[in-house]
UniProtKB/TrEMBL annotation:
<keyword id="KW-1133">Transmembrane helix</keyword>
<keyword id="KW-0813">Transport</keyword>
<dbReference type="InterPro" id="IPR002781">
    <property type="entry name" value="TM_pro_TauE-like"/>
</dbReference>
<feature type="transmembrane region" description="Helical">
    <location>
        <begin position="186"/>
        <end position="205"/>
    </location>
</feature>
<feature type="transmembrane region" description="Helical">
    <location>
        <begin position="98"/>
        <end position="118"/>
    </location>
</feature>
<comment type="similarity">
    <text>Belongs to the 4-toluene sulfonate uptake permease (TSUP) (TC 2.A.102) family.</text>
</comment>
<dbReference type="InterPro" id="IPR052017">
    <property type="entry name" value="TSUP"/>
</dbReference>
<feature type="transmembrane region" description="Helical">
    <location>
        <begin position="161"/>
        <end position="180"/>
    </location>
</feature>
<feature type="transmembrane region" description="Helical">
    <location>
        <begin position="217"/>
        <end position="235"/>
    </location>
</feature>
<keyword id="KW-0812">Transmembrane</keyword>
<protein>
    <recommendedName>
        <fullName>Probable membrane transporter protein</fullName>
    </recommendedName>
</protein>
<keyword id="KW-1003">Cell membrane</keyword>
<keyword id="KW-0472">Membrane</keyword>
<feature type="transmembrane region" description="Helical">
    <location>
        <begin position="26"/>
        <end position="59"/>
    </location>
</feature>
<feature type="transmembrane region" description="Helical">
    <location>
        <begin position="71"/>
        <end position="92"/>
    </location>
</feature>
<dbReference type="Pfam" id="PF01925">
    <property type="entry name" value="TauE"/>
</dbReference>
């Protein structure tokens, strides 16, 4: 990895950690397309591993607002769908993974922007968990389905519950990826190198998360995802 690539990724993950720590979503939507552009081999291991310390921090910081019922249904469905996400990695050639990430990112952002308000129930939790297990294992991007479920709930509930669901799912995805040979220990190096950048973004989010306009931040994240996803598809 060149110094320029490392610097680009450091800035990207710091911004992404700040955005997700503040709004509850956005890390993978920001990092996966950029990682796919600079080095497709970083997807999905780098994205998944980088999110673990961030989501651990956010889930602990706002643990009082955690929706245990919703998190339980989402996590169960997400774990059940993880093998299907792994199957996508076996089916999609590495040279085409960038295109897949771009398409998945754009579609997720469009759905999130267009979806009407609704009150989530068991079906919504299970559906979001299943889709997240599929897309996050294959590409590292899994936030939009969960954001859809919690987009009309209090921001603290969204942040804590999404972080907790991500945390369990990311560990499960990485364990399965390593167990089946689709990931190598060396791929974790970039995540370890960029831990300080993640910490900076998370720390900055602590200063403003309680007074941030979550709707505007969510709109910013999804618009960014649309732009970066299109750039990734065009660049393939």
């Amino acid at each position: 990895m060149t110094v320029v690539t490392l610097a680009v990724l450091a800035v990207t993950v710091a911004v992404a950690a700040f955005v997700q720590g503040s709004s509850g979503l956005g890390f993978a939507l920001i990092v996966a397309p950029v990682a796919g552009i600079v080095d497709p081999g970083l997807v999905p291991v780098f994205v998944l591993a980088s999110m673990i310390p961030l989501n651990l921090y956010v889930a602990w910081r706002e643990r009082a607002s955690l929706d245990l019922r919703g998190a339980g249904w989402i996590t169960g469905a997400r774990l059940a769908a993880t093998p299907a996400g792994l199957a996508l990695l076996w089916l999609i050639p590495e040279r085409s993974l960038g295109l897949f990430v771009g398409v998945a990112t754009v579609l997720a952002a469009v759905v999130s922007l267009a979806a009407p308000a609704f009150k989530p129930g068991k079906g919504a939790y299970v559906g979001a968990g299943a889709v997240t297990g599929l897309t996050e294992t294959a590409t590292g991007v899994g936030g939009p389905p969960l954001a859809l479920v919690y987009q009309h709930r209090p921001p603290a509930e969204l942040r804590s519950t999404v972080a907790a669901c991500f945390l369990v799912g990311e560990v499960a995805s990485l364990v399965l990826l390593f167990a089946t040979g689709k990931a190598q220990t060396a791929e974790l190096g970039a995540s370890l190198l960029l831990l300080p950048a993640i910490a900076v973004g998370a720390w900055l989010s602590r200063l403003i998360h309680h007074r941030l306009d979550a709707r505007r931040m969510r709109l910013f994240v999804l618009v960014f995802a649309l732009v970066s996803g299109v750039v990734l598809m065009v660049g393939v």
